[in-house]
Write a structure and sequence with these properties.
By secondary structure, the chain is α/β, with parallel strands linked by helices. The protein has a single domain, classed as P-loop containing nucleotide triphosphate hydrolases (Rossmann fold, 3-Layer(aba) Sandwich). Helices cover 54% and strands 12% of the residues. It contains eight helices and five strands. Strands 2-3-1-4-5 form a five-stranded parallel β-sheet, sandwiched between helices. The model has no long low-confidence stretch (mean pLDDT 93). It binds adenosine-5'-diphosphate, shikimate-3-phosphate (S3P) and magnesium ion (MG). The site of magnesium ion has 5 residues, from helix 1. Its main location: cytoplasm. Catalyzes the specific phosphorylation of the 3-hydroxyl group of shikimic acid using ATP as a cosubstrate. Its cofactor is Mg(2+).
Length: 176
């Protein structure tokens, strides 16, 4: 089985966008970031979409954009958004249309990475301090774990390097 569609899922800060870019070159697959595709189609930033339309609108746009991007690409490496698998049967859609990989990064590491960046992520913005960020991420992961866990492959924190993920995926593809 050749690899045509690889989807990265996981919490905000787990490295979907960063790792996706690094892996795409190795696979020769075109890379897309689902958030960027939503921004392009909607003509507004993620922060603006949440502020002006609310989360329910964003989730509809996310689900529709996901299906459109997959339909448009015979080959694709896609970084999803942190909430993508958790709404509108998107986890089933992803699993039916390619190989899903969960970047399972512990909350303490997510906090370290996101402290400087929470303002760009509407669901994490306006938290008063590090403890509040940690408790928000802990709650979010608890609610989302069951969706992330539907992914066919999972890599733990320190194995989420381009080299290790490449090896994991190659092993799966050649033995599946
Ligand atoms: N493997 C990694 N090790 C350390 N920092 C990382 C790693 N992957 C991503 N980061 C950093 O974490 C932050 C969030 O990464 P990003 O790729 O935007 O995550 P996501 O798309 O999953 O929200 C960025 O500052 C990025 O540089
Ligand atoms: O966790 C979430 O629900 C979200 C994560 C974001 O993507 P990243 O995971 O790339 O930050 C983006 O889709 C939006 O802000 C909602
Ligand atoms: Mg991202």
């Amino acid at each position: 089985m050749g690899l045509t569609h690889l989807y990265l899922v996981g919490m905000p800060g787990s490295g979907k966008t960063t790792l996706g870019l690094a892996l795409a070159a190795r696979y020769g697959l075109p890379f897309r970031d689902l958030d960027e595709e939503i921004v392009r189609r909607e003509g507004r930033s993620i922060v603006e979409l949440f502020a002006q339309e609310g989360e329910a609108y964003f989730r509809q746009a996310e689900a529709a954009t996901l299906r459109a991007v997959v339909a448009e690409h015979p080959q694709l490496l896609l970084a999803t958004g942190g909430g993508t698998p958790c709404f509108h049967q998107n986890a089933d859609f992803l699993n039916e249309n390619g190989l899903t990989l969960w970047l399972d990064v512990p909350v303490d590491e997510l906090v370290r990475r996101l402290l400087q960046q929470a303002a760009h992520r509407p669901l994490l913005a306006q938290l008063p301090d590090e403890a509040a960020l940690k408790s928000r991420l802990t709650e979010t992961l608890a609610a989302r774990r069951e969706f992330y866990a539907t992914a066919k492959l999972c890599c733990q924190a320190d194995r989420c390097t381009p080299e290790a993920v490449f090896a994991l995926v190659q092993h799966y593809v050649t033995t599946a």
